[in-house]
From TrEMBL:
It comes from Streptomyces luomodiensis. The lineage of its organism: Bacteria, Bacillati, Actinomycetota, Actinomycetes, Kitasatosporales. Signal peptide: none annotated. Pfam families: Isochorismatase (PF00857). The keyword Endoplasmic reticulum does not apply. InterPro entries: Isochorismatase (IPR016291), Isochorismatase-like_dom (IPR000868), Isochorismatase-like_hydrls (IPR050272), Isochorismatase-like_sf (IPR036380). Gene3D superfamilies: Isochorismatase-like (3.40.50.850). GO terms for molecular function: hydrolase activity. This is Cysteine hydrolase. Residues 4-177 form the Isochorismatase-like domain. Keywords: Hydrolase.
């Protein structure tokens, strides 16, 4: 049994539209293809809310300012970008906050699959990647971050996180280097 899973996080149309690096989605696609070829489960993590916003608190600075209907069923901007879309047999995990664990069944899916090593990619480095890495480390998961499989609107924040913060709790590598050794 493979104990590794690739988490492809927040690769939704709304987030992808803010990424200016034309090579970003092809790199993430390379990671997804490498995982699939190696038999590593790919879990697609998205942010999503109920219609009517009953799961968004007015106290939540990050989400309370979203327009009505954002990231709710039927919002086209909530769809996973077609270049990195899940296969029918791949799990889509819906989270309610920044971390992939918050308000989702991710931990149940990981535990059920015997997963103890997470490979992280997604948008934004300072959002879902940072929050998920911190929580996963506290839950004793082995972690790998694909630095060029993560993107952030602030390049300096991305650099500081991937070069100085993440290495304290994770192996940090590139998509290409990881793809060579994915198993």
């Amino acid at each position: 049994m493979n104990n590794t899973a690739l988490l492809a996080m927040d690769l939704q149309a709304a987030m992808v539209s803010h990424i200016r690096d034309a090579g970003y989605l092809p790199r993430v696609r390379r990671a997804i293809d490498a995982a699939r070829a190696a038999g590593i489960p790919v879990l697609h993590v998205v942010v999503g809310f109920r219609s009517g916003r009953s799961d968004i608190s007015d106290r939540n600075k990050a989400f309370s300012g979203l327009p009505e209907g954002a990231f709710s069923p039927g919002d086209p901007n909530a769809a996973i970008h077609p270049d990195v879309a899940p296969r029918p047999d791949e799990a889509v995990i819906t989270k309610k906050r920044v971390s992939a664990f918050a308000g989702s069944d991710l931990e149940l899916v990981l535990r059920s699959g015997g997963i103890s090593h997470l490979v992280l990619a997604g948008i934004a480095t300072s959002g879902v990647v940072l929050s998920t890495l911190r929580q996963a480390a506290d839950l004793d998961y082995q972690l790998t971050v694909l630095a060029d499989g993560c993107a952030d609107p602030d390049e300096e924040v991305h650099r500081v996180l991937t070069e100085k913060v993440f290495p304290r709790q994770a192996e940090v590598t590139t998509v290409e280097e990881w793809a060579k050794t994915a198993r």
